[in-house]
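Quick start: read one record
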Amino acid sequence: KIASVKMDVFDVLGTHIRTLVNSRQAPGHYSVPWDGKDEQHHNVPSGIYICQLKAEKFVMSRKMLLVR
């Protein structure tokens, strides 16, 4: 079943940094790289970021550590 999938990156204060995925996708395993840049393609500083995945009613968040 194809579902709407959205993956966003936020800083620890909850500020939206970048949308990595915003499309309809079939079930499966996917890999999504993040180059450490915001929506304007500026480098963000080292630190902790939150990656949030939404697919229909499913929501999952994970912490990530960006080291430059």
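The CA atoms of residues 18 and 39 lie 5 Å apart.
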